[in-house]
Amino acid sequence: MEKVFICGHKNPDTDSVASAASYAYLKSQINKDYEFVPIRCGTVNDQTKFIFQKAEMPLPEYMKDIYPKVIDSMTTRLITAEENDPLSKFLRILREKNLRFMPVINKDNEYEGMLGVNDVTELFLRDDRESKPVFSLRADSLRRSLRGTVLNVGEKEEFSASVVVATMAYDDFNQHVANVANEENTLLITGNRQNILHDAFKKKYPAIIIVGLSEEACKKLDFGDYKGWVFYSPFDSSQTIRCVEMATPIGKLLKKVEPCSPYDYIDSVADAISKSSTKSLPVVSDGKLIGVITGTDILKRKRAKLIMMDHNEATQAIDGAETADLMEIIDHHRLGTIKTSSPVTFFAKPVGSTCTLVYQLYKANKVEIPKKIAMLLLGGMLSDTVIMKSPTTTQDDIDAINDLSSICGLDAKEYGVEIFSATDSLTSRSAKDIIGTDFKIFEEYGVRFGISQAETVTLAQLGEVEGKLREELFNVKENNKLDWMMLLVTDIIKEESQLITTGFAPAEQIFAYKKLGDNLYFLPGVLSRKKQLLPEISRILEEISK
């Protein structure tokens, strides 16, 4: 069943992760055509972990990106050959199945190489008239290619040999063999020539093939102490030579094409495929062949299906979102909408939490909310509305919180205090964690800026970590190529915030906030980045752009 990924924004907060998990359950109840998979594209904070543990629900799987990968488009229904298969069998399968190539494995299904029509063609187009070709052979492959009988079992299962055919007069043949052949590397093909056979059984040839005799007559021959293989061939000499060529185990002809991983990006393997003689690459995991990716597969590449939760801007979306088939957006933020190639379902309302919108969709679809899902939704709402203190809180949020509290058997305000108490203090967290946990990038009026928010139960500790926070703010600014970076630290108890910035003189000169120090501001009554700080930043940037 095809998967649809449901994902919140980068640097996920509780509302983003809880809404994705809750919406995946709803979609699975009302649409059986897909498998709906909640994912996250970043590390979750302690508050989010607490809510999922409280609900006894697993966190959504972490995925770095949703760029098309080999595993999404590779062919898995394979026709393979084994390294010991004779060339005759390999060519027969190619012809019958109308194939251009086959991957070759060993008996343990481990990848050995690739072999295609072009590779075999090169073998037979070689100009080696000046030297006798040496064939690498296996006795079993030779028997199958000859479709004959083993008259004597030799000591060597594998051997390399040049072919000598006894077509000359006896004395001339002996002279010829003496000049060109090493006994241990000679395969003799002979007809009903008793003197040559008599001599041959005394030599160290690894194999002899007898032609021109009946099988019954061959079985009456005395092989003496001969230690090599003796085969009966039902074909004439020229056909038998051809059978020897076709008996070559394909493992001896392999080209070791470097395999790719199922998790390689499609774009990263395209060049290697185009340069491959088979226009394909084997896909290997833990040494085992699991698929093949071809140029045709790349042209028909499958795009991931995506539902975006709690955001609608490209800068905040999981990496690779631009390559995905976007199906839905569920959000409660301003519109900075990602471009789409086709119409999508877009559900957006000015409420305090995306979890509130998911709650309303449960009601609209008349799907009962299980207690575990209710706890996730309630946690997301209480987190994003700061226990209903945020100015973003609406009556829709309050109504949903009251209903979900009843389903869960919890007091909303007490649960809210638990949730925020689960967040570590400023002094116990690294600056990178504080800034990176809830961080969003925006671009307005030609200015690219970032705003991170950290919520705490007291601002008293801020002075102890301010220096490290400033240093990390400049790191984030540089790494993300920003013009301006800010951290909003919010005291949810006193309902006030302080804003630390990297400085952006044209804008900060006209800030409406009280200045506490260099690039440090006091924001009384400000709890919401979305509804209080961001509109002020937008106003200032618009003003200085004129």
UniProtKB/TrEMBL annotation:
Swiss-Prot/TrEMBL cofactor(s): Mn(2+)
Highest taxon in the source lineage: Bacteria
Alphabetical keyword list: CBS domain, Hydrolase, Manganese, Metal-binding
Gene3D superfamilies, A to Z: DHHA2 domain (3.10.310.20), HprK N-terminal domain-like (3.40.1390.20), inorganic pyrophosphatase (n-terminal core) (3.90.1640.10)
GO cellular component entries: cytoplasm
Broad enzyme group: hydrolase
Catalysed reactions, semicolon-separated: diphosphate + H2O = 2 phosphate + H(+)
InterPro entries: CBS_dom (IPR000644), CBS_dom_sf (IPR046342), DDH_dom (IPR001667), DHH_sf (IPR038763), DHHA2 (IPR004097), DHHA2_dom_sf (IPR038222), DRTGG (IPR010766), Ser_kin/Pase_Hpr-like_N_sf (IPR028979)
Pfam families the UniProt entry points to: CBS, DHH, DHHA2, DRTGG
Record-annotated CBS domain positions: 74-131, 253-308
EC number: 3.6.1.1
Gene Ontology MF terms: inorganic diphosphate phosphatase activity; metal ion binding
Protein name according to UniProt: inorganic diphosphatase
The species this protein was found in: Candidatus Mucispirillum faecigallinarum
